[in-house]
């Protein structure tokens, strides 16, 4: 293989590796509060608020932002708000802290991981940790309480802005 052929092959390989996101022509809104922005900054004008599951056509990408079109409108969306596949129906909606609704289906005690590594029963782990033994119902009630916590959109956006997180990163 001569030098120009090697160079051409290297350039083609680099282009293939550098553009995997653009090869994906369709993305989906995966996060509540996703906004189609006029420019690739969180402070730019909002063109539209996009519901979870909205299909987006990718027009380009710069830094952490995708240029997309949806419903006849085009603009920019932060990469943390999209996914390559549509979200499950259970993720589309819900207003508790972790999305979805209802109560937990998790059946686990607070010491399951730690005690299992050491081979302890729950009672032995509780005694070793100087804490009372709790029933599964108590753990489930505590977890359901956490899952019932609600955070408003304004509170969440304020937190992200103050911490320069996600689309508010500098």
Task: Please render the helix and strand layout as text.
Blueprint: H1 3-18, H2 20-23, E1 26-29, E2 34-37, E3 46-50, E4 55-62, E5 65-70, E6 73-78, E7 82-83, H3 112-118, H4 122-128, H5 136-147, H6 153-163
Antiparallel strand pairs: 1-4, 1-7, 2-3, 4-5, 5-6
Protein model, in words:
The protein has 170 residues and is α+β, with helices and mostly antiparallel strands. It has two domains: 21-93, SH3 type barrels (Roll), CATH 2.30.30.40; 96-149, no CATH class. The chain has helices at 3-18, 20-23, 112-118, 122-128, 136-147, 153-163, and strands spanning 26-29, 34-37, 46-50, 55-62, 65-70, 73-78, 82-83. The strands form two sheets. It has a five-stranded antiparallel beta sheet with strand order 6-5-4-1-7, with no helix packed on it. A two-stranded antiparallel ribbon has the order 2-3. The longest helix has 16 residues, at 3-18. Mean pLDDT is 78; it is low at 18-22.
Question: What is the CATH fold-level name of the largest domain?
Answer: SH3 type barrels
Q: What shape does the CA trace take?
A: extended
Q: Going by CATH, what is the homologous superfamily of the largest domain? A: SH3 Domains
Largest sheet at a glance?
A: 5 strands, antiparallel
Radius of gyration: 23 Å
CATH architecture of the largest domain: Roll
Q: Which tags fit this structure?
A:
170 residues; alpha+beta; SH3 type barrels; 2 domains; five-stranded antiparallel beta sheet; two-stranded antiparallel ribbon; 6 helices; 21% strand
What's this entry about, in short?
The chain is an alpha+beta fold and 170 residues long.
